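Question (not urgent): is this output format expected?
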Amino acid sequence: MPLPPAPAKRAALLNTEGLDAAAPKSRSTRKSAPRRDTHEVEAPVPTKAPEAPLAARKSEPMPAYKGERKAAAPARAAAPKKKHTGPTKLFVLDTNVLMHDPMCLFRFEEHDVFLPMIVLEELDGHKKGMTEVARNARQTSRSLDALVASHGADITTGIKLDGTGHIQVGGRLFFQTEPLDFTLPSSLPQGKADNQILGVVEALRIKHAPREVVLVSKDINMRVKARALGLAAEDYQNDKTLEDGDLLYSGAIALPEDFWLKHAKEVESWQSGSHTFYRLSGPLVPDLHINQFVYYESAGEPSLYARVTEIRGNTVVLKTLKDFTHLKNAVWGVTTRNREQNFAMNLLTDPEIDFVTLTGTAGTGKTLMALAAGLTQVLDDRRYTEIIMTRATVSVGEDIGFLPGTEEEKMGPWMGALDDNLEVLAKTDTNSGDWGRAATNDLIRSRIKIKSLNFMRGRTFLNKYLIIDEAQNLTPKQMKTLITRAGPGTKIVCMGNLAQIDTPYLTEGSSGLTYAVDRFKGWPHGGHITLARGERSRLADFASEVL
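Got this back:
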């Protein structure tokens, strides 16, 4: 059915005569609302909508580790945490858990934690070096030392885990202070560290029966052996933002077919410049987030594409989008080809959006749109001084060894996507000839800097357009390091395909890109969109589906 026309006066109710007449009838008998002559519209209101504090949503805090992990449901305010009423468990930690997350000791809520002596021995053996594992081992050792030195700590009766200020933890930390008798199958070598930990779990299970004793390990084979021996074993899930990648926030939502029939009488509308604003309330509002896109598409009826700009109480304000599918709105000669690309381009060109995340399969246009928007805002609008591009240097196959040259020359082989997309963007200028295109290429190259992730620590980028490509290969800690480099006037664009993770031990649920999308959901100056349809070629689209 047609959308109600925007009223002449600001914040006036929409004309619903056509809706009242069409509500009880079938779709074929609906009548369009009378169109208003554009000459009858009063003088436009000021170009800015009234400023008001944005009630941005925040995700609930990540729940502490509890066997199976469920995705945190979005809510306006953090719901009060329910207290555990059942018996507490005793978790025995493997060494790899401590080296994976130095703060894991404080992630088990009211449950107790047990550390075998062999775990401390292995922790001591991995503390040397400059790797991430060595740093985590040293941080874990410092946390253990602080707990032991806390006031009133008694190793024999267990050390309270809230002794160093982590008041959300109610359990105790136990060390192995005496030899434990256990019997393992003769096929398991007694001198191996993993088997000694399994023996400790077996001894504790017998000693503390009927209390549940659970082994927590990141090692899959370790968990398989534990279950084969009849021991409870679980993976450490606290590093996962989402259990299932399909639960990831997509950034867009479709309005129901009967949206205007249910909401039109309560919708207020006004115009500001070339945009139309709608203020509405109803059952849909609790499911929306700031900067989330909404769209209404129905056969034979006008479509609506808008973005949530304000949420206050039970009302929401929608702002119509700029149509980048039209050639007159082309960005550096690039027009969008589908709905999601249009959503992404609205985020990339909005100066009020400081952080943009784009996810999607190969060929959806992530890098091309980010570069086109960046070049327009650097060279034409002078909004940023230059484009900085970086990516995680993780090989798909075998490493080819050391690369010669400067930092940018070493990063050259990793930046093939940049060269490919610049070639496409250079061809959009067809009237300047070969010499003109060569001069344009030199100008573009002078405004694009390629940097390595290894040297980002301590830097501050001022008025820069920072593109992080292949962000799915970054850990949450690396993602935090990069995003916190942003100074005043800097915009960061993170792109990646969560189905193409090459970093060992990273999954869709624990990737830094997933972490950033979930944490920035609903922030007034951040936006996300999942690109759904590939535009590279029919071969690439078919390969993405069947391979």
